[in-house]
Amino acid sequence: MHATLPLMRHFGFPAIRRARLETLQVNLGYKCNQSCVHCHVNAGPNRTEMMSRETITDVLAFIDVAGVKKLDLTGGAPELNVHFRELVLRARELGVHVIDRCNLTILEEPGQEGLAEFLAAQRVEVIASLPCYLEDNVDRQRGKGVFAKSLRALARLNALGYAREGNGLELNLVYNPQGASLPPAQEPLEADYKRVLGERFGITFNHLFTLANMPIQRFGSTLVSKGQFNEYMALLHRSHRNENLAGVMCRSLISVDWQGDVYDCDFNQMLDLPLKLDGRERVHLSDLIGQELAGNPITVRDHCYGCTAGQGSSCGGALHD
Ligand code: SF4
Ligand code: SF4
Asked: In a designed cystine with 77, which of 32, 86, 122, 222 is the match (CB 3.0 to 4.6 A)?
């Protein structure tokens, strides 16, 4: 795989600083039952990195002391971590809103029986990738048969009450472009998804988040192989909008890797660009307990234009219309 960080041409992303911490995003491990083309984690069935119980204890201690309101669980497939359900239960006991970045197909994997029911019972928000409402496009990006399995999973979540008006069980979908282009406007695309998934398959969901592809890991490497890397970087840079800087997710979120090391966001984690604090090159979550992060400079590079290009892109979708 081509490393893309050395290829970034140093357009010089503007300096930004942290605001109040709201969300702890935790990567529970890189193992996944899928190997999607656009995966920015390079996750797959053969990855062995997994967060230990000891580090999960650090996560819970941090949440408790820092008063974090949201716990955002990612991977790989976060549910493949054997401590996943215990972490969710304990975080919910602390009154934290938990988000599961779920690939949907995991619900049908052996050993994951009862997962959908567990998520519903714990009132976990599910955020799931579905890069298109057309079978061919999804299967091309995420693997053969993924579309059909994803729809079965969505139907199951709906049957458990997800996306049913008034009951607060949130089910949100994520769209990312197939190629080296920016995502289309979020609102009309959400309306299209709702119409097609509703009419053809009887599926409902709350919101569609449109995310830009980051020029890193598997997607970045594919761009290099196709000779499109510089062109895509130029598109991101050209489309930068200063007003998006206030809403980039790294201002209110920290990302923790499977070993407990801390980054300003998940993308920086994948590029091994750690959060810098008090001159330290690397910070562990356990070192952050009781530390104030507001005002701390954020580590930025040119991939950050992926968050500020066009309508903007964050873990909660577009930043504006
Ligand atoms: S499901 Fe998600 S984590 Fe797994 S390979 Fe696909 S994009 Fe990566
Ligand atoms: S890539 Fe990460 S550090 Fe850069 S702007 Fe986006 S969220 Fe912030």
From this structure: 32
Identify the three-state secondary structure at position 49.
coil
Q: What is the dihedral of CA 98, 104, 109, 114, to 10 degrees?
A: 50
Looking at the predicted structure, is the pLDDT value of residue 10 above 80? no
Residue 172 in tokens: 């949100």
Q: Cβ(34) to ligand 1 under 6 A?
A: yes
Inter-residue contact 51 to 81 (CB < 8 Å): yes
Token pair recorded at residue 299: 């580590």
Q: What is the C-alpha to C-alpha distance for residues 218 and 39, in angstroms, rounded to an integer?
A: 6
The contacts found for 65-68 with CB under 8 angstroms, 24 or more apart, are 65/289, 65/290, 66/21, 66/24, 66/288, 66/289, 68/21, 68/22, 68/23, 68/24, 68/96
Q: Is the CB of 75 under 6 A from ligand 1?
A: yes
**What amino acid occupies position 219?**
F
Instruction: Quick: pLDDT tens for 74-93.
Output: 999 999 999 999 999 999 99
For residue 40, give the ligand nearest its CA.
1
pLDDT band at 321 (very low <50, low <70, confident <90, very high): low
CA 71 – ligand 1 centroid, Å: 19
Compute the distance between CA of residue 288 and CA of residue 66 in angstroms, rounded to an integer.
9
Read off the pTM: 0.94
Beta pairing, strands 97-102 & 70-74: parallel
Atom of ligand 2 nearest to the CA of 249: 7
Contact 252 CB / ligand 1 (< 6 Å): no
Whole-angstrom distance, CA of residue 35 vs CA of residue 93: 33
Q: Determine the Cα–Cα distance for residues 297 and 303; give it in Å rounded to an integer.
A: 17
Residue from 28, 34, 102, 173 to probe ligand 1 pocket by mutation (most atoms less than 8 Å from CB): 34
| Nearest by Cα to 98 from 54, 63, 49, 57 | 63
Tens digit of each residue's pLDDT (9 = 90 or more) over 248-284 = 999 999 999 999 999 999 999 999 999 999 888 899 9
